[in-house]
Model the fold of this input.
Amino acid sequence: MIKKILVANRGEIAVRIIRACREMGIKSAAIYSDADKTSLHTRLADEAYYIGESTASQSYLNQTKIIELAKEIKADAIHPGYGFFSENSEFIKRCEEEKINFIGPSSKSVEMMGSKTAARELMSKSGVPIVPGTTKPIASINEGIWSAKEIGFPILLKAAAGGGGKGMRKISSEKEFNDAFEATQREAMKAFGDDSIYIEKYIENPRHIEVQVIGDKHGNFAHLFERECSIQRRHQKIIEESPSSFVDQETRNRITQAAVNAAKACGYYNAGTIEFLMDAEKNFYFLEMNTRLQVEHPVTEFITGIDLVKEQILIASGKKLSFTQKDLKINGHAFECRIYAEDPENNFLPSTGILTEYKIPSGPGVRVDDGFGKGSEISIYYDPLISKLVCWALDRGSAIERMKRALGEYQIAGLINNITFLKSVFDDDKFKKGEIDINYLERELENLNSSASKNRTNPELEDAAAIVAVLIKEKLSGKNHNGYNKQTKQAQHNRWQDLMYE
Amino acid sequence: MNEFIISLNEEKKRITYSGNSKITVDKNEYECDLIHLDGQNYLLKVDNNFYEITSNKLDNDRFSVLINGCLFEIEVRSLLQEKAKEILQQRSSTHQRTEVKAPMPGMILKIKKNTSDKIIQGETVLILEAMKMENDLRAPRPGIIKEILVQEGTAVEKGAVLFTIE
Done:
C-alpha cells in the first residue's frame, strides 16, 4: 500500500487529494510556488516543499524537480490532480522508469487517447459512435456531394490541416455545395498552404454529455453514470450536473455501455471520462477521453456516494474496485458551479487580486471545494478558479433552489466574480426546464447579464448600501464613536464580567 | 443634522442623518444600526433586516460596499462638498478625457482602432492577452481616441494607461 503521496498540483484539487490522503492514513506532501505560499494546500498537507518561481514551467510543470523531490522525500506515489502533468505521457513514462507510482492510467493508455484521429479510429473499431464523416480528403465535388448525401445535411466542410475554427463551413443543402467547396478550398490554401478538405456531420446545438468511468489493474470496469456540462463559455464549463435531465434510461444504458467500451479499448485503469456530443434526437458521438480526474467529479460523488480520489489511490496500489456496477444507483441530483474571478459583463475578463473577504456557504446538501482563504491571492499565473460549489438534493428542482440559496451565502470581496451571473442562470426558465445546449450561454448572455444587473438595482439594497457608506464615513472620521470599534480582548472580557454581575 | 449626497449605479441619493438611529434616504425613513465586526466587516440592521457587509475605503469620498453578494462603488459627499464639486465640474467639463488602463498585466495582442477614430461605447479598441485568454478591452464611453500609448506585441503592467478617449 502507498505510504506517502506527492501531490503535484495546487489549489482546490490539491486540497481535495490531501483530504483523501488524511482519511486513508497516507502521508501527503504538497509543493508550492512563490505565488502559492499562502494557499490552503500548503497548510493542510503533512509536508510542504517549495518548488520554484510562480511561472508554472518553473514549478508545477518542472518534471525533473518534481521527480527528484519525490525520490528525495521518499514519496512512493505522485497524484497529478487535473491539468499540469495529469495527461502528459512523457511524465508518466518517467514515473514508470523511476518506479514511482503514478496515480492515473498507464502512459500507453494516455498516448492511445492523446491523438484525435487515432482515438477516433480506435473508437469506431470498438463500437463507440464517432461524428460521421469522411476519413480521407475528398477528391472531387461529385465525390463530396455523394458523401454529404450519405452522411446527411447539414454537414461541415473542414480543412484537413485546419484548426482553431479556421477553414470550416456549414452547408445545409446540396445546392450550396459547389460554391462552398471552392471557397473552403481557397481559404484552406491561404491559411494552411494545403487545400485538402474532408466532411463531417454538422451537429446542431448539441449537448455536452460525459460518462464517468473507472477501471482497476485487474480488468474490472464500471461507469458512474453521466454528467451534463452544456453550460460553457469560451469552451470551458461553468455549471455541471448529474444526472442529465435530457438522458432517459434507454439512452443512459447505451451511452454508459459505449463509455465502458471506450475505456476497455485503451486498456484503461484509473478514473476517466468519456466526453460525447448529443443531438436533439439523443444520438451521441464520441468527442474525446479525459484520462484523469475531472474538475466536476464531485457531482458524481454526490449521487453515487463513491469517493473517486480514494478509488484512484486504491487502484494505483493494485487493489480491486471497492464496488461493482450492481452496487451503484443514481441517488438524487447534484449541480456544480465554478466560482471564477472573472467579469461576465465584460466578456468574462479574468480578475486578479487578494481575497480581502471570503466566506463560504454551508448547510444541508452543500459542499465547497476550494484552495484559498481570506488573504489568499488569485494571481495571473494560474486558472482564476476561486471555489467550487456543489449542491445535492433529491430532485433537480430542489437542487436548483438549494444552489440559489447557497450562492447567496458567499461573501467574496477583493475580486470581481461570477456569483451574481450564476444566480441568474439558476433563475432562468429555460435552464430550469433543462432546455440547454453548448451554445445556451452565448445565446442567452445578454438576457442573463441584464437579469443579474437587475438584482443589483434593487432599491432596498441600494438604500442599505448608501446608508452603510454614510455611516462608515462618519465612523472613520471620528464622529459618532459609540465604542463598537473597541473589540479588544480587554473589552470582551469586561462584557463577560458585566453579564456575570448583572 | 448632516446631509449627504451619495452616488451609486450612476444615480444620486440624498441622505439625512442626525447622529441617532433614524436615517432618511430621499423620502424613505429607516431605523438603522451599524455594528462593526472586524476589519472591514460590518452588520447593518435596516428596520427589520440584517445585512452582512464588507466595505473598503477607496479614497476620501469613495467606498466599496459588498452587500448580499452585490458590489457597489459609492461616493459620499456632504451637501457642501457636492455643491463645490458641481461648480468645479461646470468650469472644466468642456474637455473631458478618459484614460483606459490595463485591468491586469498581459500582452497587447492586437490594436483594432487608430488615433482619432470615432468610437461608440462598448466597441473593442484592443485585445489584451492575459491568463492565456484573449480579452477585449472596450471603450467605456463614446468619443474619439485621443491617443494610443501601446504597441502590438508589447507587455503591459496592471494599471498602465493603454489609450485615452476624449
About this structure: Chain A touches chain B through 47 residues (CB under 8 Å).
